[in-house]
Amino acid sequence: MLLATFKLCAGSSYRHVRNMKGLRHQAVLAISQELNRRALGGPSPGAWIHQVRRRSSLLGSRLEDTLYSDQELAYIRQGEEAMQKALGILSSQEGWKEENQQANGDQVLSKVVPDVGKVFRLEVVVDQPMERLYEELVERMEAMGEWNPNVKEIKVLQKIGKDTVITHELAAEAAGNLVGPRDFVSVRCAKRRGSTCVLAGIATHFGEMPEQKGVIRGEHGPTCMVLHPLAQSPSKTKLIWLLSIDLKGWLPKTIINQVLSQTQVDFANHLRKHLESSPAPEARC
User: Residue 66: what pLDDT?
Assistant: First the structure.
């Protein structure tokens, strides 16, 4: 399959097929999907996969230029870099302090990260399969405002490829209106690695969404959610949410810390309530 696809992709460099609409697009996507499937779904890639990667690197980069603009490529890189940085923060187990502990086991931890600031880490177990959470948090992202009162609206401004989106989020007032309305423009990407899903994001600039009158533009630092089934109970999902955010404005740190940790606890409660009250989607064929 992969070798045939590679020949198709290479053939697109010949003049008599160069102008066939969609050929280069389909070829490079097919190579990418096949390599990812083999690399992530099975044993370590064999030498022949690395050889194909090397031989196709120049061709792939040339074809990539035809698929995305320079700005779109910059957004993709920004999202992937945010994911790596956020996962790096989560991988460090040192320095975390308890902020909030719930009777049901939900907990929020925090620590100060150099060049990032204070970050918050929510750890919960949701009595739903991972696919259900993935659908609500990624595929139905724009509907979050319907079940999470801390979010007024999330709108996808631009979709880039299958993994990356630019979003605008309008947050509700918090702490008894001590924290006024904020909005955020972010680049987000979603990746699947075997049975684990990672959803990451960071603040970005999008020219078509300038700052809004009467709303303070906050900024997400590197943030992510990690979803994976519990080993002992695959029908349940462990959710870890790393939150790094600058609310801007003149706010005491004690208010900020209280708002952010409570926002994470509230999110888990609203998510559970929504999943329990809404019917599960029909199984996919």
Answer: 57
